[in-house]
Input
Amino acid sequence: MKTNFVLRSEHQNCCGSSTGPRRSVLCCASENAKAESFDSARYLSRYKASGKIHKAASQGDVGKVQRKLLGGKNDVNARDKKNRTALHYACAYGHLAIVALLIEKCEIDICDSDNSTALIKASQCQHEECVTLLLKYGADPNVRDSSGNTAIHYAIYTNNVPIAAKLLAYNASIESQTKDGLTPLLLALKENKQQMAEFLIENKANIHAVDELNRSTLMYAVQCESKYMVKFLLQQGVDVFLKDAFGCPASYYALRSHCKVVIIQVKHKKKQHKRNEMKISLKKHCCEAPAAVAADADLDEDGSAPLGNGSHKQFLTKGNGEHK
Output
């Protein structure tokens, strides 16, 4: 059974203990359903234009759009009841010729009622040519919609690496966060988009990023059961001991999803951590003895601590029975 993040009440955390006031938060739980990929046809069936120029743009009718603009009755930046412009519709429906016609005269970064720009619509609906043209004309790739998503977040939802690459080439932030604190990499891992995650890491995405509930890349990789990505993140030295806002480390997620590689790695890290502590202690111990001798202090038998203000010459060494 796959482990996914779902809504549950905050009065009980992932580990079952109280965390505070009751309100909905994302937490870890098991469910069979997988996140549905973006269905552009279904989305566009609800993305209906209301104004005349908007309808013409959504239908790809270049002649009609030209006539509306030449007649002077329709402003190129005119908004419909949802604050969308003709450019929004042209980009959502992928009508490149309309986009090319409008882009010469319109304001390119106008936001609709959801704070979405035309670029966000083009990315969301996977129209790469429209994305490219908008970027060439100076569209801002870092505008966040009402959910905190930027154009690159939508490229990740649709697993469109070419659009993501194009956005990064035009200075889209690879660390922009949604309202839930999801960077593009965290979102890619959450959505189990391994190719996209690899692409983002190759482009220097921060593998140590955490969301608003302090959930790490490793936790998300475990949650979506991506063994390859889990191993890769562990090799890169991500913190296996980091705990989320509920006090749950990656090993907790691993136990729930039966991800043995994390459980084994955590045990290995704990042993390694103890060995490192012993080495530090031994090194400190070895440094203290000469320092004490240099200060003309008496040491105990193992040379680890001063005994008083006597001479170091009375320090007893084991072996040949001589006093030095």
Summary: Residues 260-294 form the longest helix (35 residues).
